[in-house]
Amino acid sequence: MDNINGFYMNDEQRLHLNLSDKSWSIIDHDLMYFEERYKLSTFLNLVITHYALSSDASIDARLESYRAELRSVIGHTSAHEDAIKALTKKELLRLKDAIRHVKGSAFKLRLNNDNAKFLCSSPDAVHYDGDVSLYVKNIIEEYCEKPIVVREILIRKDIADTVSLCIDAGRKCRVTTRSTTLVTTPYAIVSSKEDTFNYLVGLGDDGAITTNRISRIDDVRPYGRRILSQAEKKRIDKSINDSGPQFVRDDSEEFKVRLTRNGIRQYKMIYYNKPHHVRVEENNTYVFVCSRRQFTTFFFRFGADALVLEPESVKEQFEKRYKKAFDAYNVTNGK
């Protein structure tokens, strides 16, 4: 493929890449995180498509931003240009020194047509001495250094962008997942309190709050018009603050659980899916007002360190699940 002041690309559009072991671990995690929706080559092409222009690996973009910042501070008359050029040259050396060269496992990646065209006209070629593999390596390595909630939005950028457009335009969304299709008026994309997942939170036509994990959405399309009222927004905000975005669609109940000393320690230390107690009664009895799903998800791991007192139906649910596990071990041990 012909290059226009960019990287040279062979006709097969194949790159020989080398990624660090840490990055490979992150990529393996993300492929499972997105429920194996993508093959490796498709996934890495998405990283390039959605992240190349905004990544720090783009030295050209960073230099342009640096020049603009200098001109806003010291001025942009001809008298200042020599100083700006000198400072920019120094910044270029710093950026080139920061290029990642860490070796790991080698593999071949075939670029899709859009990414190949982008790289053939990329002004970053001069900063990477024409080494397109090194440039792409730095884009991917940088992606792998981001928190999971940032990586999730980068990969599902098409979904996030459509949701933002619908919110700005006062449109409803038709949301399709592997198991269902629903129509919701989008409120926001909200990360969980633990910064592990992003959720599209909205309001259904029946008035129920909806929530869908971004990584599990297959498609989002505009569908009709509706604008949330201030009262509806306040209601959604309260539900998010009380329960977290993953549990907003569930009805709240009151739960009582007696914690041992170790149970109290675990409750203080574990933050994933954590409900917040409303009061503590005698004998270390903690009272919660949250969804049943949140309560059971969080406390089942506690075993004997958390004795469910109320409601009776949840107490029985825990008993049955623990008994089932106990019976499974008895079978394994031949008892």
Describe the overall structure:
The protein has helices spanning 21-33, 40-51, 59-74, 78-97, 113-120, 132-144, 148-155, 157-169, 230-243, 261-269, 292-299, 312-332, and strands spanning 14-19, 105-110, 171-177, 181-191, 198-204, 209-213, 217-225, 252-259, 277-281, 285-291, 306-310. With 335 residues, it is of the alpha+beta class. The chain has three domains: 14-146, no CATH class; 154-242, SH3 type barrels; 252-332, no CATH class. Helix 2 (40-51) packs across helix 6 and helix 7 (148-155) packs across helix 8 (157-169). The model has no long low-confidence stretch (mean pLDDT 90).
Strand residues, percent: 15-25%
Count of the separate structural domains: 3
Question: Ranges with pLDDT <50 over ≥5 residues?
Answer: none
Distance between the termini: 69 Å
The chain-level structural class is: alpha+beta
In helices, the fraction of residues equals 40-55%
Biggest sheet, in brief?
5 strands, antiparallel
The number of strands is 11
The residue-averaged pLDDT reads 90
Query: Could you state the oligomeric state of the chains shown?
Result: single chain
